[in-house]
Amino acid sequence: MCGIVGYIGTRDAYPILMKGLARLEYRGYDSAGVVLLSDHTFNLYKKAGKVSELDAFTKGKNTSGTIGIGHTRWATHGVPNDTNAHPHLSNSGKLALIHNGIIENYATLKEQLTKKGYHFKSETDTEVLVNFIEEVKIQGNLNLEDAIRTALNEIIGAYAIVVMDIDNPDVLIAARKGSPLVVGIGKNEFFVASDASPIIEYTKNVVYLDDKEYAVLHRNGDFTIHTLGNVQMTPFVQELQMDLEAIEKGGFDHFMLKEIYEQPRALVDSIRGRVNAEDGWIKLGGVEEYLNRILKANRYIITACGTSYHAGLLGEYLIEDLSRIPVEVEFASEFRYRNPIIYNDDVVLAISQSGETADTLAAIEIAKERQALVYGICNVIGSSIARATHAGSYTHAGPEIGVASTKAFSTQVVLLILWALQIAEKKGSISTSYLRRILFELESIPKKIEEILKQNDAIREIAYKFHNAENFLYLGRGYNYPVAMEGALKLKEISYIHAEGYPAAEMKHGPIALIDEQMPVVVLATNESAREKIVSNIQEVKARKGQIIAVINEGDEEIRAMADYAIEIPSTEEILTPLLTVVPLQLLSYHIAVMRGANVDQPRNLAKSVTVE
Ligand code: M6R
Asked: How far apart, in whole angstroms, are the C-alpha atoms of residue 147 and residue 543?
């Protein structure tokens, strides 16, 4: 989704802004722009397309200035074109503004401003906002800070904004409500961005703005943070834990491939310090803190979107299987709008890689209003969801840049396995010997993923056979059903091939009609408990000339012989299987997308963190 970068200090702002925008490309965008202030003039450049096109466009033009703001736009109001791209200037040309989010009352404000003689070049809500601030400033004879605060108190919607004023060339003002914003603190310089990736190169000291807060950043190094209610806050300066290497490709062609290969390390990090297989214990800090309430709950509700929702489905299987507590899983977008029944003794688990997904945040607010305990499972440290929940656990996957979620999924699943086991152990619904056995096996999973990654070349060959397919079907049973859904999502989002994930038994209730010699069917055939049934499913597909790509347990010659292509995974405990079966599906999607010439890391129309409804 849109990306924000701002700089004020002593260096040339332009290269900092452009590098920052390039680092935010992963969020998804369709146009980009920068504005620099020098000699009491705004130099504004905006272009539909990539950041590199903007850079080419500015060649030979005046890009001087030690204060500036830049933006990558993911269109909401108005098509992606040069005019709708940010930054936007006010009618007087004195204010410049960039904005992430949606101003819900923009139409009313636009009408009021139009009546007062304001005109608008773009179709955006952002241009309305910058003019509204200008109008408030002029009418109230206010300074920039007071005008922004007063105006924002009238705004309905979500935003992160950064504002520059020709008359205040030594000040940058940044504000947020519902959209993330982080301020990097250097020596007599400040950086502002949607996330830490544009900042990490220059400073590790950052302040994450809270909702309804704004920062006033002065070129002399002073800064203040206030709430929109005009209460001054004491800034909480934190040290960033990530390093530059973590957000670069490290020799891989794409971030997605790098992140697939990072899974063994990511899993080790997500387990580290939380389990002791020898002694048979698990400690998730957040669970310990609210243990009584979690154990007393009659029901858990898991809510999330996309890949995180698929991890949530696995959470349902795990928790019900191990602890016998009922679980409901729901898309956050449905949960927030359908007037769900939530009891005050419910526990709601919200899962999100980015921690910024608008639907998931809204679902959390509803759950909190109804007094449920809300537990977050997030990857991005300090993210909005991590802060909005009562308790939670980080997945520790490290920065995930590719839009297609990979290592975030597997670490979410690890967290849900630990959650389910910890609750089950406390409830006494599993034995210590079983717990120890699973924990020892969990510790061996990173090595087993490495074994699967060694089959990359073979998986690429399978991808080659099918990269021109128009449809794909993914089938799985039990713990492999959510993985089938995830495999289908991975393929469709990066290769644009239509793909469906189904519980294998559902095939005969409809999807079987689709099967002919053109239809590749990926069958996750590793569950020993449902072996006979999976064998039958494969035969049903073969009888209709479908092409079988089977993911099988190593040494399973029977299913290998039935399949057209087979990918082996090392054997493991059934509840841990998804951590292995998902890996070949990620690689298969990746290679197919590359062969089709798709933009793997930034698929069309998609954003990494979906901060609008
Ligand atoms: O950041 P979140 O986990 O909340 O994001 C949820 C979905 O937007 C995300 O998983 C999306 O489906 C990915 N593109 C899947 O690869």
From this structure: 71
